[in-house]
Specification:
Helix content of chain A: 40-55%
CATH class of the largest domain in chain A: Alpha Beta
CATH architecture of the largest domain in chain A: 3-Layer(aba) Sandwich
Shape of chain A: globular
Strand content of chain A: 15-25%
Strand order of the largest sheet of chain A: 1-4-5-15-10-11-14
Number of strands of chain A: 15
Largest interface: A-B, 41 and 42 residues
Oligomer: homodimer
Chain lengths: 457, 457
């Protein structure tokens, strides 16, 4: 324990919590490309998006010039129920690895939703409520986002309708019950409640559903039900804006103790947690005020950054949502059944995609058996049982710490620990029983995914 | 929000964490009655207990004169990974109830084991390790204690053998996998690994086990395996000693802000969390330095305090453990299948029993449907999804706050929120579906339980 004065967990005072979200796009030299209308191929306007999203969220989505958004007091009050989240010095992991590196992680799993998703859920629910809406719809796969949204809606007395991929609905009844505890209605998707659901069920009787289908049902209900809008838990820039609270808190905690990270690591699925963690640090780097290495970690089964193309693509498999320019494997790419459901998205947030394309960020992909081995090693010494998604960051943080051991460098590593693994024990069981396999898509499979990319002439 | 300067969550600094456990027995005027040998009916000596428990823990168990035990540095370091636990001001619940009462809760569920059990698990594992032992055995029902012990043993590199009641082993595979993640071996009980297990299986083929049987197996293995001892997660006074860290932290946090509780409430199964929470406050009350109301909350299905007898009884259904003088329903009393497994114990910690008999503490029993209604109301406004056990305390805290609403009194209420309900969603599901029933034992059932009490002549 080299640095005696740094506690195991750094908690900011309530008065030190961020009062603004940071919109990294405002400080970027090359801005992310705009969303395009899938039919006209013209940039989406606020008017185009208003039937789907609340007005304030549309504004945030399209705004790449305002650097700071004041966090409304009601949201700050909600944040105070589970934030500030601790910045943890991983003394025990350092000791176990016998590394000279100093390892920190920002732990976002200490709330009932079990992940960082709550940071954006409360913001989106708040703006819906403020607009006088009655309720919101969304889709959920594994259930973390749906749980977070249900919690936020219960708090604000807003209706919450969740379309849950049918296979998850059946396999993860506990997640479903948590949402019901928070008063959400949870419908297995595809359902007979929507036109798109009926159509899919007619074409594919007995299907267990997909995230793309659940999105389509949620969007249909939101646009057809008076007083409803649709909300989304990742990928969008508004979500990354809200998630900047992660990075702002982490930076404030480090600044308080005079610590500067050399390497910042996060897992990347849709990109919002990684984007939120790195935002204030990246802002400094772009302005030339500091230098950091940023590493996005993605699953080998779904390597958007490391093996994808930077192109305009559909955000959803149903091809109804706007086109976004991003690193993508193609909206028709179906990743193998990995146990990190939160990272099984074919594309990547457009802001992160631009940063990666500009060489401001690195990316690596890792196979899941190595991820679970790292997760277990971490759990045994640091106590916290990590979510498989978050464990991608753990794996690479350990790798970097071991490199320091070889070279003797005392680097400071910061990574994002976004969630807990309580609801992923079936995956851990497979790992313990030696039944977990790695799957790396072939070139042919990738090419097939790319064939879904829209022609942009 | 009457008291603006008090944050939503009070975290002590690491330097403010308790460095001593408090042994309430030292300050009691009427000491709890000693453990008796079940055969000779003579007080158990350190020698008698040494084959079962580690030496240091035996000392703590028998010691009713030393008021403070210094917490070893290694245990303090482990505590720093998940402590200090927050003292939360329930602003949102107060607002919802529109009560003038000020409600606080000490939240012990924010660690991976999901409960306060970790506070004693690390202590017991530490003393086992220090004595040069190879491993420990224990039993677990729902799995919270087993998980906590597995985590502590993984940290100290100690072997951990858990006998898990077979029905839980099969119904709660996730709990089992968390323990395996922490390197514990988990055996469904009854098993063919022990003499007692073989005997029970021969007599009752196909039995799904019981806690009493699992205890007997764990004790047999501990006493027959060189370098092993048995450890227990509640009921014993050593456990209450370790759990005093809950009350000491809560009191330090309240003192820091000049807050004094009027009423202190905790759920009571074996009694260790309640005992730990109230210990420092009760010490003040006994010395005449302050006055508090203490309320133990137990399930209506298993009302040891409110309908039990104060008598010497067996601690286990197998009748092999020492006799303890306690409020008890009789070791043969089988409580109805409530969803608060952690509170389904026929007896009560001997120290708490003496305090209750001396009129220093009150007790109430509540039916489970009311407990789940309170749990859901709490979850929706305070964010945290509570364990059914902990929700007994929530129920009575809400009742007391509503009484304040009627009378206009601004009382300060403190309750213990000992754990999360992540692994209890099947119970919540029953509640949501209106399938949960209340069961209150009849006088006849109670008399049958009392018939198991040993004759003490």
């Amino acid at each position: 324990m080299a640095n005696k004065e740094i506690p195991y967990k750094i908690y900011l005072e309530e008065s030190e919590m961020p009062k603004y979200w940071y919109n990294l796009r405002a400080d970027m030299i090359n801005k992310p490309a705009p969303l395009l209308d899938p039919k006209t191929r013209k940039p989406m306007t606020a008017e185009d998006l208003a039937p789907v999203f609340c007005d304030e969220l549309v504004k945030q989505e399209l705004d790449d010039t305002t650097a700071y958004y004041e966090i409304p007091q009601e949201i700050l009050d909600f944040y105070k129920m589970y934030r500030p989240a601790p910045l943890v010095r991983a003394y025990c992991l350092e000791k176990k690895l016998q590394t000279p590196a100093k390892i920190y992680y920002k732990y976002e799993g200490g709330n009932t939703s079990g992940s960082h998703k709550l940071n954006s859920a409360i913001a989106q629910a708040y703006y819906a409520k403020k607009q006088g809406l009655k309720g919101v719809t969304t889709e959920t796969g594994a259930g973390q986002w749906g749980t977070a949204l249900a919690m936020a809606c219960a708090y604000l007395d807003l209706e919450c309708k969740v379309y849950m991929v049918k296979v998850s609905y059946e396999q993860k009844p506990f997640r479903r019950e948590v949402m019901r505890t928070y008063g959400a209605s949870v419908t297995p998707s595809p359902s007979m409640e929507t036109e798109v659901g009926k159509k899919i069920l007619a074409e594919h009787p007995g299907t267990t559903g997909s995230l793309g289908c659940a999105i389509s049902e949620a969007v249909e209900v939101a646009t057809k039900t008076p007083g409803y809008r649709y909300v989304l838990g990742s990928v969008l820039n508004q979500v990354m804006l809200h998630q900047s609270v992660i990075g702002l808190e982490a930076k404030a905690a480090m600044d308080k103790y005079g610590v500067k990270p050399d390497i910042i690591i996060g897992c990347a699925g849709g990109g919002s947690n990684l984007g939120g963690l790195i935002a204030p640090f990246m802002g400094e780097k772009i302005k030339g005020n500091a230098d950091y290495r940023f590493i996005a970690v993605e699953p080998a089964t779904c390597p958007s950054f490391t093996r994808g193309k930077y192109a305009y693509d559909y955000c959803d498999t149903g091809m109804v949502c706007p086109l976004s320019k991003m690193y993508t494997l193609g909206s028709g790419f179906i990743p193998a059944g990995t146990h990190s459901g939160g990272l099984r998205y074919h594309g990547m947030n457009s802001t992160l995609s631009q940063l990666y394309d500009d060489g401001l960020m690195e990316a690596v992909s890792v196979p899941q058996t190595e991820v679970f081995a790292a997760a277990e090693e971490f759990a045994r010494v640091e106590g916290i049982l990590p979510a498989p998604e978050s464990s991608h960051a753990i794996k690479v943080a350990i790798d970097e710490a071991l490199k320091c051991k070889e070279t003797g460098e005392e680097k400071t590593i910061l990574f994002g620990l976004t969630g807990t693994g309580y609801f992923d024990m079936m995956a851990y069981e497979k790992f313990h029983d030696g039944k977990m396999v790695d799957y790396i898509p072939t070139e042919e499979e990738l090419q097939k995914g790319f064939s879904y990319l829209p022609k942009m002439d």
